[in-house]
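Mods, move this if it's the wrong board.
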Amino acid sequence: MIILIMDKEQFAAEIRAGIPDVLPEPMPYDTEINHAPKRKDILTPAEKKLALRNALRYFPKKFHAVLAPEFADELETYGRIYMYRFRPKYEMYARPIDEYPHRSLQAAAIMLMIQNNLNPAVAQHPHELIVYGGNGAIFQNWAQYRLTMKYLSEMTDEQTLVMYSGHPLGLFPSHRNAPRVVVTNGMVIPNYSKPDDWERFNALGVSQYGQMTAGSYMYIGPQGIVHGTTITVLNAARMQMKKEPGRSDIRGMLFVSSGLGGMSGAQPKAGNIAGVVSVVAEINPLAARKRYDQGWVDELHDNLDELMPAIRKAVDERKAVSMAYVGNVVDLWERLADEGIKVDLGSDQTSLHNPWAGGYYPVGMTLEESKEMMAANPAAFRERVQASLRRQVAAINRLAERGMYFFDYGNAFLLQSQRAGADIMGADGRFRYPSYVQDIMGPMFFDYGFGPFRWVCTSGDPKDLEATDRIATAVLEGIRKTAPEEIKHQLDDNIHWIKEAGPNHLVVGSQARILYADAEGRTKIALAFNEAIRRGEISRPVVLGRDHHDVSGTDSPFRETSNIYDGSQFCADMAVQNVIGDSFRGATWVSLHNGGGVGWGEVINGGFGMVIDGGDDSDRHIREMLFWDVNNGIARRSWARNEGSMHSIVREMERTPGLKVTMPNIVDDSVVDSVFGS
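Not the wrong board. C-alpha cells:
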C-alpha cells in the first residue's frame, strides 16, 4: 500500500485542492486490503454509457479521453466506478481537529469524522468507500470524497453543505444556527426501492446505501455495536438463567453467532465483557485476522475437530473466552447440533440485509467461489444462499428444541430465512424466534428512552476520553440516586459499562465512546462535557451523536420498531420528524437514509451530529436538541400503547414545562371482543 508521508501544510493543501488540476498517476490495486466483492452486471448498454457520463462530469474535459476507458474498465471489472486513481495517497485516519484546514470549526469536526469512517482499521472495504455491512457507503466514489473535503475546508458558519447520496450538491448560504451539513442517502421513490433498484441506481452513480452511521459520518468502529450487543447478551443470559433452578450466574454459558466483518466483530468482545463463552463464525480470513490482531477475539480456529473440544473445555471451566471459527456458519451450527453441545444463546450477525452481494456466503462454497458466482450468475447464487439459509435454520431449530434461546439481531435473518422457505414460522403465523428488540432492547431500553449515545474527542488525546468517561460515570451515579425503579437496572448496567470501557481497550480509530443513556442522562452528560471544555478540563471540542439504532431515529418494522404493535411499525413519520426537528434545534449535521441494518427499502433512518465547544450556544443546542431527539420516539411509542414509554413520557411532562403529549386511552379487550368476537 502506497502511503505518502505529509506534513500539516502539505495535507492541508491536498484537502483544499479537491479534484486536482493535474491528473494523478493510477493507484495500484492493493491486495492487502479487504475489498468489496464485484457487484453484478445489471446495467443495459445504454445505462453503462449513462454511468460513464455521470462519472466524467466531475472532471474537466481535458481528462475525459484518459479517464473514460479507465472508468469503463472499473465498471466492467468491479460493477461500480470507484475512481481508484483519485484515492488519496496520504494516510487515512482521524487527525486532531486543528490539523484540518478550515474556516468553520464545525466543518473541521465533520472532516475528522469522515476520515475516521474511512480509516482501514475502521472501514470494512475502505478503498471502495464501504464502511460496514457489505454495502454501507460514505461516498460512491473518490471524486465525491475529494470535493466534499474541499467544500468543508472552505465553508463558513454561514453556509450549509448539501449531500445527495455521497454527492456534494454544493455550499448554500444559511446561518449560524442551521446545520453545517444536510445528508440524504438512497431517498428513492418507494415504487423504485427494491434491492435490484439499488444495484442499478448505485451503478449509475446516482444513489447509495448509506446504511446507518456509515453514510452519516457517525461510525466509531466496532465499539458502536459492542455496547448494544453486550446489553443484549447480558439480558438474554439472565433470562436463560431463570430457566435453570439453582444457577446463580451466567459464567460458562455458550453464545454462538456469526459475522466478524460486515458487523464489526462486536460479538466476541461483548461476550467477554458479559462473561460468557462465545463462538463466532466468519468465512473471510482477512476479516477474522483483523479482529484477532485488534484484540477483539481471543482465539482463531479453522478446524471444527479442534474447535469442539475447545468449546467444551471453556464451558466446563466457566471461562470468559471468545473464539472465531474461520469457516461457514452453517457447518458450525450443524456440527454443534450433531455433537449435542448445549448452546445457551444463539444469534446471527451476517449482513443479510445484503444477501446477494456479499452479505452472506452459502455453505459448500469457498469465499472466492461465492464472489465469482454472485457477479457472474446471480440467479444461481441466490438459490445457493436460500438453500444455505434453509440448512442453517434447520440446525438452529434442533438446538432451540434442546433449550437454546435464539434471537434475531436485526440483520434480516428471520426475514430472509422466511423468503428462502426455511422452517422459521410458528403455528400462529409469526416468526419462531423474536427480534432482540421485541424481547430486550425495545421493552427494557428504547421504551424508556435509553439508546446508543456516543461522543468523539476531537483532540485525538486519550486523556480527553478518560476525562469524559469520569464525567459520564459521575453524572449517571448522580441520576441513579433519585431514579425510579423502572430504570435503575439500566443505569447499573451502563455505569458498569463506562467504568469497564477504558480497561477493555474499545477504541478503534478516533477517541470515541458509546454509552446507552436516556434523555436526562444524555443532556446532563453533554452539559457536563461542555462545562469541562469551558474550564479546559477537556482540551478541544467534542462531537456528540448516536447510532441510528435508537429510540427515535429509525422506523424499521423488523428491528427498531418491531415492538410497536398498533400497525404504525410500517410508517416512517418518526424518523423523518426526528431529522427535521433536530435540524432546527441545534444539530451540526443531520442525515436521512433509506435503508439500514435490515436493508434497502425496509427501513428509514434519521441521524445527527453535534459539535460542542464550551460556548453558550452549545448549552442551548444540547438542552433543546437532545431533548427532542429522544422524546419524539418515546411519545410515538407511548401512543402505540407501550407501557414503559407511557410511564416515561408522563414523567417527562411533569419535569418539562411546555411539553404536552397526546396520551392513549386504553380500551378493555372485552369491549372490542364484544363487537368482533374473541
